[in-house]
Amino acid sequence: MLTTYITPYAEIIARLSVAQPSIDPKYFYDQRGSALFERITTLPEYYPTRTEHAIFQMHGQDIKTCIASDTTVIELGAGNCEKARALCRLIEPKCFVAIDISGDFLQQAVDRLRDVFPELDIRTVVADIFDQAPFPPDLPLSRRLVFYPGSSIGNFDPEIALGLLRRIQGQLADQGALLIGVDLIKDKQVLDAAYNDGAGVTAAFNRNALAHVNRLIGSDFHLDDWRHVAFFNAARSRIEMHLQANRNLRVSWIGGERWFRAGERIHTENSYKYSVSAFAALLARAGFKRSRAWTDPRQWFAVFLAEV
Fold it and tell me: Which residues, at least 6 apart from 256, have a Cβ–Cβ distance to it below 8 Å?
């Protein structure tokens, strides 16, 4: 079967050229974007990281008893590997594989992880998690635990999330499980504040996607021309992030251009919020046979373990 590869240039131009322009959120994560996101996770308004951490603190031993020993951990979107560091301390895996789209940032994170676990077999894969074969072909013959923390699954529309979960389930075959963080539905004020921090870090993170796109397609987006907009869309159970043009302006790139009206928006990210029952149903649709969830006392966040 012939597989058509769409270059970043072609993909970005296609998405900027339609009536409702958008940028894939994976383009947030160049070196600066990855560093900005790490700052976001420490902000007082941004609850997911510390709440997920608290769940592991409260329920770590229970989670550990549900995970087979002699496991290979494969983290999707590994980032700074801080969550992997805590998990590796908890379950002492046989091998750890870090997968992330930001290669330089990932390498620095893995170097730090090797200092902490010098005896651990650590591998890296620089890839989009939707690549056809992101798992290394020569992994140890042990059970696999795919680790996908931080509620990144919420960045995908539910049907796309379902497709990713099905691919993970298929790659695990009969020898593994998925440990995944999921952000839960909660008060709109809490959600809106988490994506509109007072320090403006999320706004800088959002606008930085334009700087990354400039390098990839030779465009001339000026970041000061765009305002960060984020809000909870209750009807679709998701946070939406946009960049809104401050004035009428023209953006050009190699081979083309587009005019934007004042107030026109580029859609940059969604972050879907689930109930525990709704996400458990999504895992079942993806082919996982059993799942259980641990939550914090306020039920703001959940960690699921789903078995094949």
Answer: 13, 17
**What is the pTM assigned to this prediction?**
0.90
Residue 263, number of CB atoms within 10 A of its CB: 11
Identify the CA nearest to 42 among candidates 199, 255, 271: 199
CA 257 to chain centre: 30
- The answer to whether 145 and 308 have CB atoms below 8 angstroms apart is no
Listed by start position, the domains of the chain span 48-186+273-307
- What's the CATH class of domain 48-186+273-307? alpha beta
Distance CA(296)–CA(72), nearest Å, equals: 27
Which H or E run includes 155? none
Q: What's the pLDDT tens digit per position in 77-119? A: 888 888 999 999 999 999 999 998 878 888 889 999 999 999 9
By DSSP bridging, strand 238-245 and strand 265-272 are antiparallel
Both ends of the chain: CA-CA distance in Å? 28
- Residue 174: pLDDT above 80? no
Q: Which of 271, 308, 301 is nearest to 49 (CA)?
A: 301
